[in-house]
């Protein structure tokens, strides 16, 4: 009898511990580990990439370090370390839902379908899909890709839209941006589609930028948000308040100018209507 009681108590303790672990919120996990783990990119300049000094840097990483981490430190009353793990369109949601990372901070478009699996922060960048081609290419936009070999990243919104709108385009999907660009440089494909700002960054970092052109009007709207585990409202509040405070104080625009200004890694002027849109997301205190 005594042995049975001990077994029952042990089982209760085991399932109780399992339940506690299962229900741990992101803030509780960060508090316990002392670390915020983000999923981000290694080859998407200037959002997130490894530079010539082998440093992992970029616009979205700066936003986390300078806008979100200070609020997290204050919320938890301790210094939180930042850890980075590589993510890509095909892996970022599994990384998030499996608790391998706490936040996706890169070039992820906020879409209705993705909201079935994850939540998003407010929009921190807006762009649209275009094409990267060799100078002089007959491809001038989505209207001229029928029958052409087009590269895209696996799991990207660009790939889905091309497949839906131009079903006779020969779409080839690659695991990441460097692989897609390599296919383009080697002539395996005739164009590479991605968000315009990413293509501009890729062109700027190419060995011979003058050989490449970003073409076509936007054929999609790509609002970038930071993805979080679904239903974790307390952590989402910390992320959103950090971004809103950065926009309201002007810190966001200083970070933007560092990466996209005239002397930035990828000059990409902030349109007045985009700036106004960002400011309109700020909720009064």
Describe the protein's architecture and organization.
This protein has 285 residues and is of the alpha/beta class. The protein folds into two domains: 19-126 and 223-280, Periplasmic binding protein-like II (D-Maltodextrin-Binding Protein, domain 2, 3-Layer(aba) Sandwich); 129-220, D-Maltodextrin-Binding Protein, domain 2. It has ten helices and 15 strands. It has helices spanning 2-22, 26-33, 59-76, 92-97, 157-165, 177-185, 196-205, 233-249, 251-260, 272-280, and strands at 35-40, 43-44, 48-50, 56-57, 81-86, 103-104, 118-120, 125-127, 129-134, 149-153, 170-174, 191-195, 212-215, 222-224, 227-229. A five-stranded mixed β-sheet has the order 11-10-12-9-13, sandwiched between helices. A three-stranded parallel β-sheet has the order 5-1-6. A three-stranded antiparallel β-sheet has the order 2-3-4. Strand 3 (48-50) and strand 4 (56-57) form a beta hairpin. Helix 3 (59-76) packs across helix 8 (233-249) and helix 3 (59-76) packs antiparallel against helix 9. The longest helix has 21 residues, at 2-22. The protein is globular. The N and C termini lie far apart (61 Å). 39% of the residues are buried. Mean pLDDT is 91; it is low at 4-9 and 11-21.
